[in-house]
UniProtKB/TrEMBL annotation, chain A:
Pfam families: ADC. Residues 391-408 have a biased composition (Basic and acidic residues). Residues 472-485 have a biased composition (Low complexity). One of its GO terms (molecular function) is lyase activity. Gene3D superfamilies: Acetoacetate decarboxylase-like. It comes from Streptomyces filipinensis. The lineage of its organism: Bacteria, Bacillati, Actinomycetota, Actinomycetes, Kitasatosporales. Signal peptide: none annotated. Residues 192-212, 384-408, 462-485 are annotated as: Disordered. This is Acetoacetate decarboxylase. It comes from the Bacteria.
From TrEMBL, chain B:
This is Uncharacterized protein. It comes from the Bacteria. It comes from Streptomyces filipinensis.
Length: 722, 99
């Protein structure tokens, strides 16, 4: 509750929902920003109108007065504010007034910024959990700068920063607003065409200022969608449905969604006719993409064009599958996959080759376009709390003219938390328990596809225009490793992580006491001291999803031939040749998948917890209420140091598990004086007990090895017979 | 030697007058924007979830819209004067017109 008596997320005083009020105001402001932009464009057009230029030679005095008045209207700091693109370069130079005046931004941009701020606030009212999202954190840091021009500059920098764009791409509910503002900032003029939802809705706006756009759009490398047939693992084959049904198709997508594979199936219908079902997954937040576009936010915009790489990949898969012309096709997709399939259904040329009978999307934006074939039956199923399919105006009211071939369900699901409310697993559960009538209705519509599956083939989409994400460091051979939550690809790859290793000298006997008894593990010593490391990770994008990790480890000697001063010498060797390593005493992670992988693949004593980490700035802040632990502080001056590759040790039965962690970033070594670990009085075992026994709760780290952004891969654990 | 026909001069003056009319319409649009911004600021005044400083920022922007509207009207007037100067004395400069 705030001092003014209002709590975030509650109703506004006049009784209306605060989120709805903020969204409505954000929409109004976006319209105003678009109006101001178009006025600026028209004023700029008048300034460089050919008749004015031509007549200036005949009537220089009145022409000068008119041009001066126009330029003043366009660039005055208390008026439209001017912009580099609306003022012709020559004129601006001649009059000494340009758009790019330091410390000044155009009025349209400032109003657009206000709109974005309101939209962020509205999203956080409905989804306060998004405040912890790394992309959201960076965005808020930018827009909450003190002065508006500072905020605009920070936003420009953010749009240019590729590392930040990955985080922004996870903010699906805000991407339309970000694109609109970026168009105003003229970072990407092309974004205006699809990135201004409000302008588009209100009809064509004024022509954009001369010359921008086309050339720059052409220079952006086009995506080249492709798809390669890939095999399914034995475990996956067990989960693939053998009978056609709506939930069966969705479960297929869920099985293959881990790396974005597309599935094509032949189904023999009740009438004996073989038909085709194409199933496409969405992109899961916090997991890598198959491609690595230079501009993630722009890639989102492209998704809504018929020519998107995702749509082309599906086309390539259909071509390889060998579907005869004129065959009946049903499309089932989730999120991005649903959008790509809708694009295909809108493509008149595609619909002349094949008969798209059904398109069923789950958690995808519905759009307003009609399919190329009017007979195509379209169903959209969305959770009202899922911000991805209803990103802008939450227009979930049924259409006034319900189309006989369109079925839309927007239900209030029990899950509000994003990204959980967007996950396919949740949608499947809701279709079973919350809206079973929707499942029945779709199954009824798909009656011709309800029969035995006679052929199944999976395709891996590729984008040849862009290198795979993390290339070349993370382009590695991988293999599935079985776990109780399904197969996991190893090495586990992290595409965007931050870390702070807090290194403490501790008593060697205390460290020895925490290592498993009856093993060959002994702590490495420097004199009488051993070294304990409290590692805090923020994994923003990994192949096992995003998670936060808190690990306590002790440096241990070679299992077979421990030597004195190994601790000093071994780190100088290549990581794969090292014999020493860190034995993980306790590991707390925030996702179930990470916990299972750590336990079953790396042999580490992992437990599930809740934690929030911010390790991207000079000030680090990691808190876990469950563990009763907080690490806060400011990193002092640091020096660059070599890549911090590690060997981690765990235990499985009577064996030691050795895991190799390779990293690629720019780690820095900081003094540990500014950082402090705090344990609550009710701090939970086992981590708190171990920290106390090592004396870390009262000590300050000797040094902190920190890296705000790095790539990493962790191999599967190798069993050592000791 | 290049000469300009009176018809061409009239056409360009017509276009300039059309631009001036458009600027006047845009001035009206900017007044509308100012009203919208003030209405939004008022709507947000009781909303605790609104970011701090939104209201004064919107009021500043509304004032800027009003200023822009005035300047656009002024520019429209200047453009009209210039267009009429061209139509009144085709082929002559303003100094000739004053004579």
């Amino acid at each position: 509750m705030r001092a003014d008596g209002h709590a975030p997320g509650r109703s506004a005083p006049d009784g209306q929902d605060a989120g709805e009020l903020l969204r409505r105001c954000a929409r109004d402001l976006a319209e105003v920003a678009e109006d101001i932009r178009s006025v600026s464009a028209r004023t700029g057009g008048a300034l460089r109108a050919a008749p004015l230029r031509a007549s200036a030679r005949r009537h220089p005095r009145t022409a000068l007065a008119a041009r001066w008045a126009l330029l003043r209207a366009l660039t005055h700091r208390h008026g439209l504010g001017g912009s580099a693109t609306t003022v012709p370069k020559g004129v601006a130079r001649a009059f000494g007034a340009g758009g790019a005046v330091p410390g000044r931004e155009s009025l349209a941009v400032l109003v657009g910024l206000a709109s974005l701020r309101l939209r962020i606030a509205a999203l956080l009212v409905d989804h306060p959990e998004l405040a912890r999202d790394p992309g959201m954190r960076r965005l808020r840091e930018a827009v909450d700068r003190g002065r508006d021009p500072d905020a605009v500059r920070a936003l420009r920098a953010l749009f240019r920063d590729r590392g930040a764009q990955r985080g922004l791409s996870g903010l699906a509910p805000l991407l339309a607003a970000l694109l609109a503002l970026r168009a105003l900032l003229e970072e990407d003029p092309g974004a205006g065409r699809t990135g201004r939802p409000f302008a588009a809705r209100r009809g064509p706006s004024a022509a954009s200022p001369d010359g921008i756009g086309a050339a720059r759009l052409v220079s952006v490398p086009r995506s080249e969608g492709a798809a390669e047939p890939v095999g399914l693992t034995d475990q996956e084959k067990q989960f693939i449905a053998t009978e056609g049904s709506f939930l069966g198709f969705l479960r297929n997508i869920e099985v293959l969604s881990s790396n974005g594979r597309i599935l094509v199936q032949n189904v023999r219908g009740p009438d004996g006719v073989v038909r085709y079902v194409v199933q496409a997954p969405g992109t899961a937040p916090g997991r890598p993409r198959n491609d690595s576009p230079p501009d993630y936010v722009g890639a989102w915009r492209e998704l809504f064009t018929t020519d998107s790489s995702c749509t082309r990949s599906i086309l390539a898969a259909l071509k390889d599958y060998g579907i005869p012309r004129g065959a009946d096709l049903a499309f089932v997709g989730h999120g991005e996959g649903g959008t790509a399939l809708l694009n295909l259904a809108h493509d008149a040329e595609f619909c002349r080759s094949y008969r798209v009978t059904h398109v069923v999307t789950v958690g995808s934006p519905a759009g307003t376009r009609e399919p190329a074939d009017p007979r195509t039956w379209i169903a959209h199923i969305t959770n009202q709390h899922d911000p991805v399919p209803v990103p802008d105006d939450r227009n979930t009211t049924p259409r006034l003219d319900p189309h006989p071939h369109r079925y839309e369900v927007a239900y209030p699901g029990p899950t509000r938390e994003f990204p959980l409310c967007h996950m396919l697993r949740e949608y499947i559960e809701h279709l079973r328990t919350v809206v079973p009538e929707a499942r029945e209705r779709v199954d009824e519509a798909l009656a011709a596809y309800r029969g035995p599956v006679v052929r199944t083939r999976a395709y891996q989409p590729r984008d040849r225009a862009h290198p795979p994400e993390g290339h070349p460091f993370l382009t590695l051979p991988t293999s599935p490793s079985p776990t109780t939550v399904g197969p996991v690809e190893v090495p586990v790859r992290s595409y965007d992580s931050a870390v702070a290793h807090l290194c403490y000298p501790v008593r060697a006997d205390a460290a020895r006491g925490l290592l498993p008894g009856g093993t060959w593990l002994t702590p490495s010593r420097l004199g009488r001291r051993a070294l304990a490391v409290l590692s805090l990770y923020e994994h923003r994008c990994t192949t096992i999803g995003p998670y936060t990790e808190i690990a306590l480890s002790v440096l241990v000697d070679d299992l077979w031939r421990p030597r004195p001063y190994d601790l000093a010498v071994d780190p100088l060797r290549r990581a794969d040749l090292r014999r020493t390593g860190r034995y993980v005493l306790c590991l707390a992670v925030t996702s179930e998948e990470a916990r299972v992988v750590a336990r079953e693949i790396w042999g580490q004593p992992a437990m599930r917890t809740t934690a929030e980490a911010d390790l991207t700035g000079r000030r680090i802040d990691v808190r876990s209420r469950d563990l009763g632990l907080a690490v806060t502080g400011r990193l002092g001056p640091g020096v660059r140091c070599p890549e911090a590759d590690w060997v981690l040790y765990g235990r499985r039965g009577e064996s030691t598990v050795r895991t190799l962690v390779r990293t690629h970033g720019r780690p820095r070594l900081h003094p540990g004086t500014g950082v402090r670990l705090r344990l609550g009085t009710a701090a939970a075992e086992p981590l708190a007990g171990q920290l106390r026994r090592l004396g870390l709760d009262t000590a300050r780290p000797l040094f902190v090895l920190a890296c705000p952004q790095f790539l990493a891969h962790r191999s599967a654990g190798a069993l050592l017979p000791r | 030697m290049v000469t300009e026909s009176p018809r061409a001069t009239t056409a360009s003056a017509g276009e300039l007058l059309a631009r001036a009319a458009m600027l006047r319409a845009d001035a009206g649009l900017m007044d509308g924007c100012a009203r919208k911004l003030l209405a939004t600021a008022a709507a947000l005044s009781g909303c605790a979830a609104a970011p701090g400083g939104t209201r004064p920022a919107l009021e500043r922007q509304a004032a800027a819209c009003t200023t822009a509207a005035d300047q656009l009207r002024r520019a429209a007037r200047a453009l009209e004067v210039h267009a009429r100067a061209g139509v009144g004395k085709p082929g002559t400069g303003p100094s000739a017109a004053r004579r």
